[in-house]
């Protein structure tokens, strides 16, 4: 997927949203998770670089811009934004620089330094039409995910992992493994195997939905196929577990 060298591009998709509360010590409690619902991301470019990202979904939105004074960091195909006070932030896969031809995905946080805030995770791109999804055969997709988690220690984390999706276009199995987690309060990064999960569900039209489980977490993952002939798959996931664990994210695979 190619973005304009200079300009804006708005992409349609879907997102899950979590509402959370933050105590004076920085501990987080997730009050609700909703979606996936319709969502958009608007990307602003300058000299082929993403310099702004605006996410919008029911109940959550964030608008970040380097020309507007926000901090921007690029790591490979991933672009991260933060306000100078670290109240709002976002991570987005640059569709012009990633291996994905038909999609992008990311996460965002709004008001993380306030008493209440929201987090979102969205998947965006060119969906396969229902009639163009294969009716036979099989496919294996490998990719990555990003997410936001409240772990059992009460802190919020930004996560990344490997993703594998296998399908015969009647059912689909998703496996998320090798999760790493960066503590948004302390900056310490480590592994988070308790956030790995897998699950199997049905394909309906141009999308799949699977119930998922892992070590102490249960949830769901779903999303559409992308591209003219289902060359890629992406979507969102959500999960909860004991000790107040709550988790949302998005992924892409080809």
Report on the architecture of this protein:
A hairpin with a 6-residue loop joins β6 and β7. The protein has no helices and 18 strands. The chain is mainly beta and 254 residues long. The protein is globular. The protein has one domain: Porin. The strands form two sheets. The protein has a nine-stranded antiparallel sheet, with no helix packed on it. The chain has an eight-stranded antiparallel beta barrel with strand order 10-11-12-14-15-16-17-18. The two termini are 13 Å apart.
Tally of DSSP β-strands:
18
Secondary structure class reads mainly beta
Beta-strand percent range: over 45%
Mean pLDDT across all residues, rounded? 96
Examine the secondary-structure arrangement and name the CATH architecture.
Beta Barrel
Low-confidence stretches: none
What letter string, H or E per element, gives the SSE order?
EEEEEEEEEEEEEEEEEE
Report the end-to-end length measured between terminal Cα atoms: 13 Å
Helices, by number, come to: 0
Q: Which quaternary structure do these chains form?
A: single chain
Output the strand order for the largest sheet: 4-3-2-1-9-8-7-6-5
Under CATH at level 1, the class stands as Mainly Beta
Give a quick rundown of the structure:
With 254 residues, the chain is mostly beta strands. 0% of the residues lie in helices and 66% in strands.
Give me some keywords for this one:
254 residues; 9-stranded antiparallel β-sheet; Porin; 66% strand; 8-stranded antiparallel β-barrel; mainly beta; 18 strands; globular
